[in-house]
Amino acid sequence: MNWKDIQVSEDSTNFVIDGKPIFNKSFIEVLKFHSPGLAPVKDISGSYHIDISGKEIYPERYSRTFGYYCGRAAVVKEDQWFHLNESGERAYNDSFNWVGNFQEELCTVRDKNNSYYHINLDGKKTYSEKYIYSGDFKDGIACVKTLTGKFKHIDRNGKLINDKDFLDLGVFHKGYATAKDERGWFHIDKLGNPIFNQRYLMVEPFYNGFALVTNYDNSKVIINEKGENILNLK
Questions:
Q1: Segments making up each domain of the chain, as ranges
Q2: CA–CA separation, 40 vs 58, rounded Å?
Q3: CB atoms < 10 A from the CB of 221, how many?
Q4: Model-level pTM?
Q5: For residue 234, pLDDT beyond 80
Q6: Which residues contact 206 (CB under 8 A, 6 or more apart)?
């Protein structure tokens, strides 16, 4: 049985293949299987992980368990957050107020002082700075909110991608990121420069060369990467 073929039942209490339950046991809640074939489940004993045979991979129980990413799964024990490795053992000794899921072998966390930063697979902080907020890495770049209240992009080593800051930021997608300044939302390149002059109430990332944007009158428009209106949506 391949874990990729296993789906969560419609009521999220069991696992199915072709609509048929694969375990005799039902759960209070389940989340889908992730590589290497492990899934978070919850029953009356608590939350834990099982393999594709339905067998628990460790005896411990947690308040919450989440899926495996990069060989690490976020768990909550009382109010302490940390990650497990694929054997169900703690991946590191520290605990946090919150942890995300590992992306590109790095993970955003919130420490006991409510500061955000990123850790590696061993739980080690990857740079010296701390932030008001830090997001997931995508293609080696993450968004952070600095102590000045402005958003910037950083690389895997915590180095700033450019010298620009913004009121809000999105991750880069196909070379461009969404950004917000005092005038509104727009798109920037990796140097932090606007790729057009217009500002909008909302913008979406570019999808194969085009993006959906919302004007301040709430009308929707499709624009190209030059900022030109291509289609007014009714």
A1: 1-91
A2: 12
A3: 17
A4: 0.93
A5: no
A6: 173, 174, 176, 187, 225
